[in-house]
Amino acid sequence: MALKLNSFISQSHQLPSLAFPPIASLRSPKFYTASTLKSGSKEVQNLKKPFMPRREVHVQVTHSMPAHKIEIFKSLEDWVGQNILVHLNPVEKCWQPQDFLPDPASDGFEEQVKELRERAKEIPDDCLVVLVGDMITEEAVPTYQTMLNTMDGVRDETGASLTPWAIWTREWTAEENRHGDLLNKYLYLSGRVDMRQIEKTIQYLIGSGMDPQMENSPYHGFIYTSFQERATFISHGNTARLAKEHGDIKLAQICGTIASDEKRHETAYTKTVEKLFEIDPDETVMAFADMMRKKISMPAHLMYDGHDDNLFDHFSAVAQRLGVYTAKDYADILEFLVGRWKVDKLTGLSAEGQKAQDYVCRLPPRIRRLEERAQVRAKEAATIPFSWIFDRKVKL
Ligand SMILES: [Fe+2]
Ligand SMILES: [Fe+2]
């Protein structure tokens, strides 16, 4: 099947690359939507339209998976029904945000809110920034459901399709939806953050979408989701640790509970890719290498609050400094996945498959070396205001 290039968004303007280490420096070329251009430029007047996403997106390769590969995913439906759907929890057994929040229907509501606010007073601003960034990332769940439904062979064709792939996508989304909901309500009640700015950021982010370059291929897509679920498991786990250190045990419990959902989702997605390695190792290893060459972009990389053109970079820098999600984590996740899927032990690959295998297996130490060099070069960190916390300044 021929590749289609959607180049309608191409611009020659390059903004400084994203700073999320070490991925940014390795990313493939990016292209910018009109609204990323500085106002006042002539091009802006020609191109600017309301509601266009503000951030850069790549030229997209679409529908790269040939028809006979789509059949593989159709043939896996029963397997998904038996092996993947079991990783979803029944609604009646799921935790709900209300389990962790003051009950507005109870007499003790005001007292519980007071206690929550007392505990939240001790959380430093840099932790708040990371929590808000995590919450905003979770709140963009409509985008992630959309992404899953861009994939050929597994998409929910009707919105209520009964194929196991479609059931997974909807129920996974429904589980994820609780994450943003809980963090949002908690941060609202804490009184520590500027909710209007946060709400604007969520609206901008959902309006902008995301750009993980999955080519409508579930080979690419499930490698991406495997990586991302593990990344969120790590980052929510680290935020739980920070909350505990600052004495907010309830918040630690909230972040830990969300982390355990992410872990369960990671298990399902890595199991799916393990199956793909079993039945189609060549295509799967090539997709793995392709995603790593493009770098795994974070789900909220297009975030914007109406003020800070580099908001995601700044949020990421704070997360890196606090050890919530770091360049080392990126290399560790990759190394974990290589081991999980036994990529180094694959045999009978084509020449191209062997090249991909070699690339992926050698990448984690390469990323670590690049990161070490970047740290040596790192300058004194700047301190910048975050609108999410009433423009209080935080060190990057
Ligand atoms: Fe989540
Ligand atoms: Fe997740």
UniProtKB/TrEMBL annotation:
<comment type="similarity">
    <text>Belongs to the fatty acid desaturase type 2 family.</text>
</comment>
<feature type="binding site">
    <location>
        <position position="138"/>
    </location>
    <ligand>
        <name>Fe cation 1</name>
    </ligand>
</feature>
<keyword id="KW-0809">Transit peptide</keyword>
<feature type="binding site">
    <location>
        <position position="176"/>
    </location>
    <ligand>
        <name>Fe cation 2</name>
    </ligand>
</feature>
<feature type="binding site">
    <location>
        <position position="229"/>
    </location>
    <ligand>
        <name>Fe cation 2</name>
    </ligand>
</feature>
<keyword id="KW-0443">Lipid metabolism</keyword>
<comment type="subunit">
    <text>Homodimer.</text>
</comment>
<dbReference type="InterPro" id="IPR012348">
    <property type="entry name" value="RNR-like"/>
</dbReference>
<feature type="binding site">
    <location>
        <position position="262"/>
    </location>
    <ligand>
        <name>Fe cation 2</name>
    </ligand>
</feature>
<dbReference type="InterPro" id="IPR005067">
    <property type="entry name" value="Fatty_acid_desaturase-2"/>
</dbReference>
<keyword id="KW-0560">Oxidoreductase</keyword>
<dbReference type="InterPro" id="IPR009078">
    <property type="entry name" value="Ferritin-like_SF"/>
</dbReference>
<keyword id="KW-0276">Fatty acid metabolism</keyword>
<dbReference type="GO" id="GO:0004768">
    <property type="term" value="F:stearoyl-CoA 9-desaturase activity"/>
</dbReference>
<feature type="binding site">
    <location>
        <position position="265"/>
    </location>
    <ligand>
        <name>Fe cation 2</name>
    </ligand>
</feature>
<keyword id="KW-0479">Metal-binding</keyword>
<feature type="binding site">
    <location>
        <position position="262"/>
    </location>
    <ligand>
        <name>Fe cation 1</name>
    </ligand>
</feature>
<dbReference type="GO" id="GO:0046872">
    <property type="term" value="F:metal ion binding"/>
</dbReference>
<dbReference type="GO" id="GO:0006633">
    <property type="term" value="P:fatty acid biosynthetic process"/>
</dbReference>
<keyword id="KW-0444">Lipid biosynthesis</keyword>
<dbReference type="InterPro" id="IPR005803">
    <property type="entry name" value="FADS-2_CS"/>
</dbReference>
<feature type="binding site">
    <location>
        <position position="179"/>
    </location>
    <ligand>
        <name>Fe cation 1</name>
    </ligand>
</feature>
<keyword id="KW-0150">Chloroplast</keyword>
<keyword id="KW-0275">Fatty acid biosynthesis</keyword>
<comment type="pathway">
    <text>Lipid metabolism; fatty acid metabolism.</text>
</comment>
<dbReference type="GO" id="GO:0009570">
    <property type="term" value="C:chloroplast stroma"/>
</dbReference>
<dbReference type="Pfam" id="PF03405">
    <property type="entry name" value="FA_desaturase_2"/>
</dbReference>
<feature type="binding site">
    <location>
        <position position="176"/>
    </location>
    <ligand>
        <name>Fe cation 1</name>
    </ligand>
</feature>
<keyword id="KW-0408">Iron</keyword>
<dbReference type="GO" id="GO:0045300">
    <property type="term" value="F:stearoyl-[ACP] desaturase activity"/>
</dbReference>
<dbReference type="GO" id="GO:0006952">
    <property type="term" value="P:defense response"/>
</dbReference>
<protein>
    <recommendedName>
        <fullName>Acyl-[acyl-carrier-protein] desaturase</fullName>
        <ecNumber>1.14.19.-</ecNumber>
    </recommendedName>
</protein>
<comment type="function">
    <text>Introduction of a cis double bond between carbons of the acyl chain.</text>
</comment>
<keyword id="KW-0934">Plastid</keyword>
